[in-house]
Amino acid sequence: MKKLWMACALLLPASLYAQTATLVPPANISYAGLEKNLFFYANTRCKVTQTGSNQLDLNKLFDGRYDPSYTSAPSESDPTVITIEGFQAQHTQRLAYIGWTTRYWAPVHFKIEGYDMSGPGWVTLAEVTNHAAGEFIKDIASIPGLYGLFRFTFYTGSGPQGQLGISELFYLNGEAAQAYDGLMVRYDAANNVTMGSKLRPSNLNVNGQVNTNRVKVTQDSWADFVFDPAYTLPSLPTVEKFIQDNQHLPNIPSAKEVTDKGLDLGDISARLLQKIEELTLYMIEQHKKIETLTKENQAMGEKIQQLQNERSTR
């Protein structure tokens, strides 16, 4: 039965609900917009819990794609309840919206609550019955508070048997959005992203530590030219003289250059590989010389032993 009504949902006309939330202007002409959704990926960066027998796909509710999630019919006695917590609370004194959007089977009876950290506790921001639109947007600036938790309770849906569909949950706060942009992340139309700094020298600028499992750098050239027979390996006396004059290896940036300009990871990796390959050639050359000297010493030892044996027989 569940597969049947899910299939029916996909066959419903796309115009059933507009799902554009046009009441909220873009953030570039307002203090808040849907692109400033503070719930964006809340299921991975905040704490999201869900209760009720009929549950929605949390991954779809916060990914910004507006791809609907459907569930069997909730009820007044067994509602679907989603609680979001763990993000930085900001006052809703100037401009703030909260709501949801969907494509099919919108909630008919629902309630949205916020937990005011400044004292009152849970505050009902909206409770609606007999709702008939495919979206709900509530300006909660008239209900000022320092909200650190939000709770969405869906009692009934508009599906054929009361099923529920939700595409996205959103919370837009002009004051929080401005602080988020100014202190943490900035981005512009040129695809530049800046974290922790107002400087934008490159497409991604991070003022702080970056933790990652792996970094892949694409290079147009690599240092294997060292092994080309036409490559001239610098002599060790030449390298020694350069080090004495400059206090760093040839073709490697100095400490001052790194301090002033930083490092290109791909470029410095290629340069360091070049030095490793040159060292390898030096070692091979030294190994050949050592082998030659070893053989010469062995031959000389045998000659000395032969002369000693001849003298002892006289």
TrEMBL record:
Signal sequence residues: 1-18
Domain of life: Bacteria
Keyword Signal on entry: yes
Entry keyword set: Signal
Name used for this protein in its record: F5/8 type C domain-containing protein
Organism: Chitinophaga flava
